[in-house]
Automatic annotation (TrEMBL):
This is Saccharopine dehydrogenase (NADP+, L-glutamate forming). The keyword Oxidoreductase applies. Residues 126-432 form the Saccharopine dehydrogenase-like C-terminal domain. It comes from Chitinophaga sancti. The keyword Oxidoreductase applies. Residues 4-121 form the Saccharopine dehydrogenase NADP binding domain. One of its GO terms (molecular function) is saccharopine dehydrogenase activity.
């Protein structure tokens, strides 16, 4: 038996756990799922003979290291800041590691040690990052093999609510880690357009969103995502004039989120006491109190909008204009906002989410300029087996299977940009209706 250890049983783990347990009898696997919440683990694993639930505090070094020592492969779906703890243990005990999270400076500092140990740490093996890398590299390699010269690469991806479940003024519901949603974009963005490096700071990231036409869906808004330039080398497109990775949302979300940023409600730098603070006091903490104005009018006046505007409706929907007490102890503004969106923008049991990804690549071949559109739309089944859980979890599961079957000869700190990885993973994803449609103009 091969032992797979999975850290984290949250929203993104559901379909990964399904995949591992379906494959366990045939592949002779035993799966240990470790999380601080035993009931959550059991709700995802059922009574399978092939699984062991492990309720542990990830900071408990002895318990954590014992699980890692007993495993043949480790998968981490913990919050990004906690991966490094698991990674150091995997290095210490000689275990391969898979995660869907970005390569960060801490893991980058261990790159040589990972390589020297002959281990494979495959990062960015989820949706975005993950499927975006694999599908993009397949297109890029195909164009280059036929003699095409690429001049522009743009890639967009978003976790959205499916149109039939899109019933609130934010046009958004949470299908993944709420903390990640609150902090998204906080480091700003940098990308390259027509030969010029462009930077957008966090304060203006959401208010400059532009739109893109998606087949069968219509217009979605986009904003540039993190540091696109860091991937030019990974994609072997160092010298092209335009290179950008971006996030997709419905337009109303970007307008509303831009307002939350302006009000300072996404700030994560200092803690405030919320026990005797109302939601309105919190939301208006940077405003001067205005006499003879209602809560709506005061915030609308500060923002320079009508008290009957869509943005005021959005703030009311989140409960930010009422006198209820927050009563959550000491939190940062970002922590309060996370509490708010978890309560107000959660998915109902019958809700379905949707993943949209589109690549636009311009290239020249034999004197003819062509634009390639490649897009994927994935629908969730319900609030548990979401499109997000499918597209984050299944690439990890497929990669785990390939490693344990001895089909991967790669070592070091990697992301999935090689044909030996992306071809079999994308092929198997098609069995789960995760596939791309292409068109040329």
């Amino acid at each position: 038996m091969k032992n797979i250890l999975l850290f984290g049983a949250g929203k993104s783990a559901t379909c990964l756990i399904d995949y591992l347990l379906v494959n366990a009898p045939r592949q002779k696997w035993h799966v240990t799922v470790a999380d601080h919440d035993l009931m959550l683990i059991k709700s995802k694993t059922g009574k399978s003979y092939y699984v062991t639930p492990a309720a542990i505090n990830i900071q408990d070094e002895a318990a954590r290291q014992q699980l890692i020592q007993e495993s043949d492969l480790v998968i981490s779906l913990l919050p990004p800041a906690l991966h490094i703890i698991v990674a150091r243990d995997c290095l210490k005990f000689g275990k391969n590691l898979l995660t869907a999270s970005y390569i960060d400076p801490e893991i980058k500092a261990l790159e040589k040690e990972i390589e020297d140990a002959g281990l494979l740490f495959m990062y960015e093996m989820g949706l975005d990052p993950g499927i975006d890398h694999m599908s993009a590299m397949k297109l890029i390699h195909s164009i280059e093999k036929k003699g095409g010269q690429i001049s522009s690469f743009k890639s967009y991806c978003g976790g959205l609510i499916s149109p039939e479940s899109n019933d609130n003024p934010w046009q958004y519901k949470i299908s993944w880690n709420a903390r990640n949603i609150v902090m998204a974009g906080s480091s700003g963005a940098i990308y390259k357009e027509k030969g010029k490096v462009k930077e957008t700071d966090y304060a203006h990231l959401f208010d400059q969103s532009k739109t893109i036409q998606i087949p069968t869906l219509g217009k979605l808004a986009w904003y540039p995502n993190r540091d696109s330039l860091a991937y030019m080398k990974s994609y072997n497109l160092d010298d092209i004039p335009t290179f950008m990775r971006a996030t997709l949302r419905y337009p109303d979300f970007c307008e509303g989120w831009s307002t939350l940023v302006k009000l300072g409600l996404t700030d994560d730098s200092k803690r405030i006491q919320t026990d005797n603070l109302t939601y309105y006091q919190w939301a208006s903490q940077h405003l001067k109190p205005a006499k003879d104005l209602s809560n709506e009018e005061n915030i609308a006046h500060y923002l320079g909008i009508s008290a009957k505007s869509k943005i005021i409706r959005q703030l009311k929907f989140l409960g930010l204009l009422n006198g209820d007490l927050i009563h959550q102890g000491e939190l940062t503004n970002a922590g309060v906002l996370q509490h708010v969106v978890e309560n107000k923008l959660g998915m109902e049991p019958t809700d379905k989410d949707m993943i949209v990804m589109i690549h636009e690549i311009e290239f020249e071949r034999r004197g003819i300029t062509t634009r390639l559109h490649s897009y994927m739309i994935v629908q969730g089944e319900d609030h548990l087996r979401t499109a997000m859980a499918k597209t984050v979890g299944l690439p990890l599961g497929i990669m785990a299977k390939m490693i344990l079957q001895g089909k991967v000869n790669l070592t070091g700190l990697q992301i999935p940009v090689l044909a030996d990885i992306y071809n079999p993973v994308l092929k198997e994803l098609e069995e789960y209706n995760i596939r791309f449609e292409e068109s040329f103009e």
